[in-house]
Amino acid sequence: MKNFIPMPQNKEEHSLTYQLISFIFSVMLVIFFCSILATRTIYSKVMFKSQLNNMRHLVHERIYLIDGIMDKVETLARTSQDLIVNHDLSPEEIERYLQTLLTENNQIHSICLADGFDSGANPQVMYTVRQRFHSREIINTDYRYQDWFQIPYLTGEPYWSEPWVDEEGKGEMVISFSIPFYTTGKFNGLLRFDIELKYIQGLMTNNINFKIGNNFIVSSTGTLVAHPDQRLVMNQSLFSLSQEFNEDSLAKLGTAMTSGKNGFIKIGPNSPFKDSWIYYQPLVRNHWSVGIALDEEYLMKDINLILFIQTVTYILMFLTISMVIYFRTKSVSRPLKALVEAADRIGSGDFNFHIPQSRSSQEIAALSQSFSTMQASLKEYIDKLRVTIEEKNKIRGDVIYASEIQTKLVPENTIHPFGIRDLRVYGILEPAGDIGGDLYHYFLIDEYHFCFVVADVLGKGIIAAMAMTMVSTFLPSIAPFYKRSSTMLKELNNFLCRNNLESNFVTAILGVIDLRSGEMEYSNCGHVPFFIRKIDQSLHKYNETHSTALGVFENIDIGHDVIKLDIGDEMILFTDGVTDAMNINDEFLGIRGLQEIINNLSTTTPEDTAHQILKEVHDFARGSSHVDDITILVMDYKHPGGVLHS
Q1: Which DSSP category does 169 fall into?
Q2: Which of 79, 501, 613, 615 is most buried, judged by most C-beta within 10 A?
Q3: How confident is the model at residue 10, as a pLDDT?
Q4: Using an 8 Å Cβ cutoff, are 567 and 640 in contact?
């Protein structure tokens, strides 16, 4: 027992207390950071979703309000168009009607009525100042080239203009809805209703229900037409701001808003929008878009407060639990150190060392009792192990002896077996373990008949080897009485069935060569094929089977075939350990692979052929963990050298 290695003494820095606290500290830190991360992620998503909904509601409210006003203006404009076109009203009646619209609808800043070119009349602009009606003619004909006139004139469709300065009216910046009217298909003028841009801007900045961000509007070209910072209105666009502040996200926002899309985008700190999130959505009536910007600092304020409270709470919990663990593990580690010392002494071979008992906790007491039980069991186990090792060594010796016996049962390789000049035979038996279940055997039945057999028992080990021993002794004993391959194998099958061995599933090829005529009668019982290599190096495969494997069904009929051997014929027989050889890619060698090996042989003797085949099989299976018994038997009949010698 001096081979036991003593356990190393625990140092203070590796004590149970240290390890427990370190482990729990590490786990708590991981939990802490994961919790902080999860809280931040979850709360961020919740807050983002909540604020996004608020922003969406606010934008919807502004859009609903502005679209409602624009819809009202469109309705009044279309009604006025219908009245002018379809009713025979005098100019005075039309003016009174439009004056009424101006005084009753404060959304309308001014109205312009422009007759057709043929009338010779100048357009008339009507507006109110302090509840007093004013009317002014547009003398300058340049108005025909302004968007509010030219676009509806050319397209024949109503049109909402971009912001422009009405110099002929109040001189304010307005947006205009222009609608043309026709008489008998001919352009007869248009009606323009103006809304002051300041009025639209006031809708974006006044009466905000959600104090969470800044509202703004961009035109179809990306120009800011409404923004809390009046310096930007009509002076900057999202694209110019993007270039000025080198902020690509503003250009992306401008592209999205002018394309009529809606969505959510993050803007960096280098712009008038600062570090904010923006929700945007287009107006229905024209190609403008409304947005609201939310400062990210405001968004993260509540999240940061929650994270601070959570961090302080975790630190206090961490310190409290650490102190409790430290003092508790100190009280537990003392008896454990005593048990460690006892385990060290027992591990060094002192099985009689006294194990201390502790009552500090139920678990420690149970551990002490378990150590005592282990000590007794270990002493008993060591004693039994000695006996087992001795028995195993004895069995190992028996197995080695059995392997030597099995090897001696195989015929010894000679140049001409039994002095037969017409044959050269060479066999290789390579078991997967110490002993195996493969067999090759050959013997003289009488002066003129040579018998050979190659067989394989299902399984490996001692039982398979015993079955092979029975086969190798049974066949020579019955051969003089039968001499036929099919009859001998039938008797062998009945013998295996009657003895009912655990491993009696046997495949075999048995052949009888008439040394006078060169005829070979053979029977194949479930075995792999065999090959005959002619003197001209041509190869013939014989894969005919004449029955199932032996040892399964009694009194089965077994057939046979007869081959006329030619001078120089080389017969190659083997077991499935050759064809079932597997490489590192789990690919089998197979019959085709073996056939390719044989075709490439340049050997002239059975010994060279057998060894070369075995080498190629080993090379193919190198690195694979799959092993099986391998048997190779090579014979040549009336080899040229033998014929000349005789």
Answers
A1: T
A2: 613
A3: 46
A4: yes
Domains annotated on the chain, with CATH: 211-296 (3.30.450.20), 410-645 (3.60.40.10)
For residues 246-257, b (16+ Cβ closer than 10 Å) or e, as one string?
ebebbbebbebb
DSSP string, 528-593: PPEEEE-TTS-EEEE----BS-BTSSTT-----EEEEPPTT-EEEEE-HHHHT-B-TTS-B-HHHH
- For 510, the token pair is 């048995």
CA 101, distance to chain mean position in Å, is 70
* Alpha-carbon span 351 to 499, nearest angstrom: 51
How many CB atoms lie under 10 A from the CB of residue 200? 23
Kindly indicate the confidence band of residue 213, based on its pLDDT and cuts at 50, 70 and 90: low
**Long-range contact list for 469-472, CB < 8 A, 24+ apart?**
469/405, 469/406, 469/409, 470/495, 470/496, 470/499, 470/501, 471/439, 471/441, 471/496, 471/506, 471/508, 472/409, 472/410, 472/439, 472/441
pLDDT in tens, 290-336: 988 887 777 677 777 777 887 888 788 878 887 887 777 777 676 77
pLDDT confidence of residue 226: 85
CA distance 372 to 383: 17
Instruction: Assess whether pLDDT exceeds 60 at residue 643.
Output: no
Sign of CA dihedral 599, 600, 603, 609: negative
User: What tens digit of pLDDT does each residue of 577-595 get?
Assistant: 999 999 998 899 999 999 9
pLDDT score for 136: 84
Token reading at 247: 């902020």
Residue 629 makes CB contacts below 8 A (sequence gap 6+) with 429, 430, 431, 432, 436, 437, 438, 456, 460, 575, 577
Helix axes 16-86, 296-347, angle to 10 degrees: 160
Higher pLDDT, residue 403 or 380: 380
Residue keyed to tokens 């038996």: 429
The tokens for 409 are 């049962």
3-state DSSP percent of the chain in helix, strand and coil, to 5: 50, 20, 30
Residue 263, token pair as written in the block: 């969505």
